[in-house]
Design brief:
By secondary structure, this protein is an alpha/beta fold. The chain has one domain. It contains three helices and six strands; from the N terminus they run H-H-H-E-E-E-E-E-E. The strands form three sheets. It has a two-stranded antiparallel ribbon with strand order 1-2. Helix 2 (about 20-35) packs across helix 3. The protein starts with 8 loop residues before the first helix and ends with a strand.
C-alpha cells in the first residue's frame, strides 16, 4: 500500500475533509488578487467565495481581496493545512517558507 502522504488516497481524503485543495486554492488566489489578470469580475467573485469558504472552515485568513491582498512569492508550505493562520492584507511574504498553526503575520 502506498503510504506516501503526497500520492495516496489519504492526501485526497484530507483535501476533502479539510475543505482545502492547495493546488486549486493557490491557483484561484493568484487569479483573484492579480489586478492585471483579465478574468471577468464575476468569475473572480466566485473564486473569492470558494477561497473565503475554505478560510472560514479552517479559521484562517490569507489577506485575499479582489485585485489586492497579501503577496506571496511562492505558495507557502502548510503541513497542517490552513488551520489557524491569519495574514494581513498588506503582508509581503517570501517563498519556500513553512507556516505553522496559530501564527499571525503582518
Amino acid at each position: 500500500m502506498n503510504t506516501d502522504p503526497n500520492k495516496s488516497i489519504f492526501y485526497t481524503m484530507r483535501k476533502h475533509i479539510q475543505h482545502y485543495n492547495p493546488e486549486k486554492y493557490w491557483k484561484y488566489r493568484n487569479i483573484v488578487t492579480d489586478p492585471n489578470n483579465k478574468t471577468s469580475k464575476i468569475i473572480k467573485v466566485l473564486m473569492l467565495y470558494k477561497i473565503k469558504k475554505s478560510d472560514a472552515y479552517n479559521n484562517a485568513s490569507f489577506g485575499t481581496n479582489i485585485n489586492s491582498g497579501a503577496y506571496f512569492k511562492t505558495p507557502p508550505k502548510l503541513p497542517h493545512g490552513l488551520n489557524g493562520i491569519i495574514i494581513s492584507h498588506h503582508a509581503r511574504l517570501g517563498g519556500g517558507v513553512n507556516y505553522t498553526s496559530a501564527s499571525n503575520y503582518c
